[in-house]
Write a structure and sequence with these properties.
It is a single chain. The chain is of the alpha/beta class. It has 18 helices and 14 strands. The strands form 3 sheets. The chain has a 6-stranded parallel beta sheet, with helices on both faces. α4 packs across α5, α10 packs parallel to α13 and α13 packs across α14. 49% of the residues are buried.
Length: 448
């Protein structure tokens, strides 16, 4: 099939690369000339494991191309995916649909023959209706079927998620789109991946509902971690005991500094606004957002307490900046609030992240960035593990202790065990666990 993808960001690139790998003829479109030129040189603007190799292989095979010229690619396509950004609108939290609307108008002018226009972007309920109306108004002669086809990709595991999905959700209003979208995903459908057809509005709500529920699950276990600290329990054992109930499941029950990233923060806010607009408030989601924001501030206070209640003039080393491992995404990362809180208290911050420092430099310029974890520890008064990259899981603790001015380790991801760290002479602080608690519960959030 000939497929055009409007938007060559995270979702567009992963979708384009994977669909090309299925054998489709895919063209990714973007207005950013520098980005397209870089992609044509084989330079990937984001870090996602396996993506560079996937793109390179499919470009070489002639199945994947990049362009700034929308008209030709859309005219030739049987399916056009809209995969542009929908950031939170400044000031009110609503999803900003300006790029979706602009894409819809441009697609309307370019389509030729019957075309399925599929919205991949995460959009509020009713957006598919608006896209259909924009296309009909812009080009009354356009023969299109607008469908909602939300993505469910985890950063750091996006290619595997696309190729081995839990479900493929397609919201349709025109039955002609059913066979076309089935053909797009035929390689997956033959492997029994559940292809779920609904109406458009239901598909749009499934995406927001899934992200909001997972955000609530994370927030719940974080509150349980606080209760465990107050009551003398172990949140990792609580999470394991809960997760073994197959009605609950163990994923997203990993206590930490709060959720961040490109999806959960903006999608929970957008769902709150949708509920308010429709007179059906999402009270649990509203509370989840509030608790998560408070938690990020609480983590900086936890570090201050570990340093004896005062960090002014002290050097705090930060391990990990991105909101999760295996990505370079700094959007709404807990590290930003934690570092900001410590800077406000007069601390000096030294930080390292395997892939996030280029993005972080554009957000925080008062931090000293170094080349590895051991440089972070050099003469530090405390070390804070914020993001559980694999390379932080087996640090040479004896070497770290020797490098530090004061051996204090604040482990906000519960990577280590109390006994392991204190045996090396550290003062050790973790999340929701009593002194002497073990470290690895088998419920790591790294791939979530």
């Amino acid at each position: 099939m000939k497929i055009a993808i409007v938007g060559s960001g995270y979702v567009g690139l992963v979708t384009g690369g994977c669909l090309a790998d299925f054998g489709h003829d895919v063209t990714c479109i973007d207005k950013d000339e520098d980005k397209i030129e870089a992609l044509e040189r084989g330079e990937i603007p984001i870090y996602e494991p396996g993506l560079a190799e996937l793109v390179k292989a499919n470009v070489a095979a002639g199945r994947l191309a990049f362009t700034t010229q929308l008209a030709g690619a859309v005219a030739a396509a049987q399916v056009v995916f809209i995969a542009v950004g929908t950031p939170s609108r400044r000031g009110d939290g609503h999803a900003d649909l300006r790029y979706v609307r602009e894409a819809a108008r441009e697609v309307a002018d370019a389509v030729s023959g019957f075309t399925v226009v599929a919205t991949k972007s995460t959009v509020p309920v009713g957006t598919g209706d608006e896209v259909a109306q924009i296309i009909a108004t812009t080009n009354p002669a356009a023969d299109v079927a607008v469908v909602a086809n939300p993505e469910f990709l985890r950063e750091g595991a996006a290619i595997d998620d696309f190729k081995r999905p839990d479900r493929i959700v397609v919201g349709i209003e025109d039955e002609r789109a059913r066979s076309v979208m089935s053909a797009v995903y035929q390689p997956l459908y033959l492997n029994k991946s559940p292809l779920m057809f609904t109406n458009r509005r239901t598909a749009e709500l499934i995406k927001y509902g899934a992200n909001a529920f997972l955000a609530m699950k994370i927030t719940f276990i974080n509150e349980m971690a606080d209760l465990c600290e107050a009551a003398g329990g172990n949140v990792q054992e609580v999470a394991r005991g809960m997760g073994l109930d197959n009605r609950i499941g163990g994923k997203f029950l990993h206590a930490g500094p709060g959720f961040g990233g490109s999806c959960f923060p903006k999608d929970t806010l957008a769902l709150i606004k949708i509920g308010q607009d429709l007179g059906s408030p999402m009270r649990l989601v509203e509370t989840t957002v509030s608790i998560n924001e408070q938690r990020k501030g609480a983590m900086s206070r936890k570090v201050v307490a570990a340093c004896g209640g005062e960090v002014r003039g002290k050097t705090i080393g930060v391990l990990g900046l991105t909101f999760k491992p295996n990505t370079d995404d700094m959007r709404a990362a807990p590290s930003l609030d934690i570092i900001g809180g410590l800077l406000d208290q007069g601390a000096r911050i030294v930080a390292y992240d395997p892939h996030g420092m280029a993005s972080a430099r554009g957000l925080i310029d008062t931090v000293e960035y170094v080349s590895n974890a051991y440089a972070v520890a050099d003469n530090a008064d405390a070390l804070v593990l914020v993001t559980e990259w694999d390379e932080f899981r087996s640090l040479d603790l004896a070497r770290i202790k020797t490098a530090m001015k004061t051996p204090v380790l604040v482990d906000l991801r519960n990577v280590y065990s109390h006994d392991e760290v204190t045996r090396h002479g550290f003062a050790y602080f973790s999340v929701g666990r009593p002194a002497g608690a073990g470290g690895k519960s088998g419920l790591s959030g790294a791939a979530e």
